[in-house]
């Protein structure tokens, strides 16, 4: 197995050559010297309410591909990264998948942050027989009831995140919850999983489903204040979550109820007032994990290039690109069916997983069994990027439950 070294001197030279994501065109291409390149198609909502998360994933993919090319590429061939903007629109995402596969002849598709778009792209990649890795789309059916032989996922399912955090929220705050949830695939499965856990514990709730790019939360927050919950779960993402947090503060609700939920990602944490850098949440990966030597090596290598500590989105993209590399090298092939078989129960080495323990893409549902950190968000402590204190860690195997519980019935073509 080929590993990718992190040479600081070489990395700094690399950093000078990497084009900033803000200058990104569509498609953006990284290419090493040589012929017959290996092509990675990456689809993400570079524009729209989830753009901050997407730009982070793209940033990490560019850096990772550059590192792989410096180490000889994949199967001895240079790697091209072709990036397309789904614009947070399902139709556009599907169109871009067709373009990358049919015109650009990519060997793998990565994407999308938006779970609904990732889900729709799955139909295209399965039909075309192309390996599809979802770095950061969380809705359960992707590796659950609608799992497909060619699709693997790196980030957690919503069921995994809610399983990991629900008990902590109940223990610390109580069983009366108010949900502010985006009205699309991710939000619906996230809220449903939270409700299942809460009701089983004898709790009660109220909920509001709002547009994914919602900006005005005043009416919803008035309802939440009147309900007097123990905790408000802000399930929104990207700019919508940021707006909700800011308005939560403007309404003076911090003294009335706790904050918490599944994901409050560092891209959003960095964009809210320090008073809103609070609550108990999951981190699907965190840079300040001194017990894992490979994490420090990765953080020290990428930080000078991106200008800040990496986030879980950097990790999702980094792992996904390397998983494709490992699958191709294991299969000695770029055929979708060969690589899909190679990824089945494929265990990631520590320098790729950046986690302790056995981190693998589970054969039964193609879900990565990665660790989940539970802890408290707070204003920076010690380091300007240190917003989170880990209280406990739940393994992916614990959080995911059995393959049977996901509803996935995996079937490969003969």
Main structural class:
alpha/beta
Main β-sheet, spatial strand arrangement? 7-6-8-9-10-11-12
Model regions low in confidence, pLDDT < 50 over at least 5 residues: 1-27
- What is the CATH class designation of the largest domain? Alpha Beta
Count of DSSP E strands?
A: 12
What percent strand?
15-25%
- The pLDDT mean sits at 92
Q: Please provide the ordered H/E string of secondary-structure elements.
A: HEHEHEHEEHEHEHEHEHEHHHHEEHH
CATH topology of the largest domain: Rossmann fold
CATH H-tier superfamily of the largest domain: Response regulator
CATH architecture of the largest domain: 3-Layer(aba) Sandwich
Gyration radius, in Å:
20 Å
Shape field: globular
Tally of domains: 2
How much helical structure, as a percent, in the residues? 40-55%
Alpha plus pi helix count: 15
Largest sheet: 7 strands, mixed
- Gap between N and C termini: 28 Å
Describe the 3D structure.
The protein is an alpha/beta fold and 414 residues long. The protein is 42% helix and 16% strand. It is built from 15 helices and twelve strands. The protein has helices at 8-17, 51-70, 90-103, 115-128, 158-173, 185-200, 218-227, 238-250, 266-269, 293-306, 312-331, 336-343, 350-353, 396-400, 403-406; strands at 38-44, 79-85, 108-110, 131-134, 151-153, 176-182, 204-210, 231-234, 258-263, 280-283, 372-377, 388-394. The strands form two sheets. Strands 7-6-8-9-10-11-12 form a seven-stranded mixed β-sheet, with helices on both faces. Helix 2 links the parallel strand 1 (38-44) and strand 2. Mean pLDDT is 92; it is low at 1-27.
